[in-house]
Amino acid sequence: MKSSLRNVSLVSALLKWFAHAARDLPWRRTPDPYAIWVSEIMLQQTQVKTVIAYWARWMRNLPTVQALAEARPERIHKLWEGLGYYTRVRNMQTAAQQIVARHGGEFPRDFEAILELPGIGRYTAGAIASIAFNEPRPVLDGNVIRVLTRLFGIADNPKDKAVNARLWELSEDLVKAASMISLHERGPSTRTTTRLRSETSAYAKRLRRDKSARQASTIETDERCSHLNQSLMELGALVCIPKNPACSACPVRTACVAKRTGRTAELPSLGPRKAATARRFAAFVLERKGRYFVRQRPAGVVNAHLWEFPNVEIAPAADASELRDAARHALGSGIKIGEHIYTVKHSITRYRITTGAYRAVAEGMAKPDMAGEWRTLAQLRLLAFPSAHKRILHHVSNHAIGAETACPRKTNGTSLRRIC
Ligand code: SF4
To answer: How far apart are CA 332 and CA 364, in angstroms?
Structure first.
């Protein structure tokens, strides 16, 4: 009873806080499980401010499960371009096709049926079931882990199986407590239910007031599981942040073990980070008569089906001669490497990747020693590229790399390469 009272009190504080502190995000204005699903998948590994524009464009182009199920793969890759982890978007389309085939195009309400869909794990299924259908299903992502480990003072590594299971239990206890609040409203009077009723009624009043003020269409008082889970995510995103959490603004600060014991900086204890690994790639921009040579990545590899400039991984400290050898190996002996034109640096998981783009020149009628296609810049802009190659394409477009243009240093109008 003690822990259930504690949970009810935490839930009540979180719900009240969420009613006034929640960001007005576009996917929070709809109860459509498809729209919520799209947002949840996009938000994996990507910040909210980036996702907003992607989500809006996606929903304009593919507004229903049916539309996603029937879309051409090139279209969904292009809509996802820049978000990375492209397996997610292919899984989404397979899942949409299953929803059409098995559920008549209607997103399943049943948690187990949601969990069976490709690319949907326990977290995403819990998020959809709770946010779209107000089911008392728990969620546990990085933000929620941070909140729970600090709130309950869990010092062991959340990646350990038993600790992770404990965190799922705590999350489930809270969302169940949220669902119980509405049940108790109708039950017999006891000291506990009297308290629950007054907390619930204060929450409902605040919701009604906020509904008229800001989130007009969707907030109903029977959304406590949805709001509780979102409040945990939101608290982790806005207040209980990794460094210097804003404890003075936290709705559960009086109950927080980490705050009371001065351990907010220590928790969660995720163990030492794996050292970053440096990787280097050389990409080759080969142009002929205004067309550029690109290839499509095969199925079953990272960034499968996306387009790229021919490229090869080289040693981080490779010198010019090793670079030439790599180019010959990648493109064939008739292609010579030209000048360096651009460098892209980015990180994927623990890899710090540097991609150098080099102009490549075909001698005579030599062709690259690989399958690929020659496309104009306008055609290339319609294809989906991984981020690094998209940035190279952007640079090539802006600087007309390799295109026949008047050299800025010549005034007689002679058509020369821009790089002169
Ligand atoms: Fe996080 Fe501080 Fe709130 Fe505890 S009091 S849950 S550490 S923000």
So the answer is: 13
